[in-house]
Specification:
Elements (H helix, E strand, L loop, with lengths): L1 H21 L4 H34 L5 H27 L24 E4 L11 E5 L24 E4 L4 E4 L1 E5 L3 H4 L8 E5 H5 L13 H14 L4 E9 L9 E9 L5 E2 L9 E2 L5 E6 L5 E3 L6 E3 L5
Antiparallel strand pairs: 1-2, 2-7, 3-4, 5-6, 7-8, 8-9, 8-11, 10-11, 12-13
Keywords: Membrane, Transmembrane, Transmembrane helix
Pfam families: Endonuclea_NS_2
Protein name: Streptococcal phage DNAse
Length: 312
Amino acid sequence: MNDFFVLLFLAALIWLVIDWRRSHKAGLKLQKRGKWLLVAVIALLVLVGMTAPADSDSKQQPKKETPKAKTSAKSSSQKKAETSSSSSQKKQDDGSSPKANQGQTNPAILAFTGQRQMVMGDLDSLGRATYSHIQLQDKDEPKVKRAPQLKYNPVGWHNYKFYYGDGSQQAWLMNRGHLVGYQFSGLNDEPRNLVPETAWFNAGNYKGMNDNNADSMLYYENRLDSWLANHPNYWLDYMVTPIYQGSELIPRQVQLAYVGLDSNGQQIAIKLGSSKEFVDGNGITKVILDNSSPNANIDYATGRATNTVSKR
């Protein structure tokens, strides 16, 4: 539209020049014509000024903000996806090196990194430990001696001195039991790695320790420790999972899962000689043990217990 008025103005100007040359002697007549032409030119300029903003707006109308809003929304979505991906990656890489073995796909084994790593599940809504998973070499075992006493009481913790055997002696029924033992983890008062365990299940005896009791965790822990010592260039992947029934606070059972790894992260089967062992579909040896004691009835919902052996 502006171009049209510009052409019109130029045409009027050319006409004025031609008319002036024809009528240069008639000054008065030219003056009158000049006045009218001046009025016409001013009118044209006013019209151009009035229509220019309208033309400018109409050209800008196609450039609506809607596409920008869509672009912004898309960008926001991409940012959320990137944040989610980053958060997920952090969870997967917790305690592990970026140089994970890409060829290893077994989901039951921590990604092989060539470094010690330990992953523990968060406490659940009832405050119960959920799992502990470690991958280490013999050289990674803690060098510091374990503190004699634990201070943290896992949920459901109660303790009793019960008679056992012939009823002539008493012993504490429960231990604050590590899922992954201290000889591997180096952790003591870590809530995510502690559950109430009977002394019988944890240490293999009512009082003291007996690592020949295949019903106890100690049987497997000491033999896995020996396996690491005998294979200093290999790795142990070891996961311990408490098994709860519903909302009970004390696990009725605990599952141990273990497998060896060579220096390239390839699996090596480990068998410790227990009749309780079985190998799952991923080639991992597993054992499920009862968290019980022959001298007690345990209320797994609360952690309370009664003695089944009478005093002699």
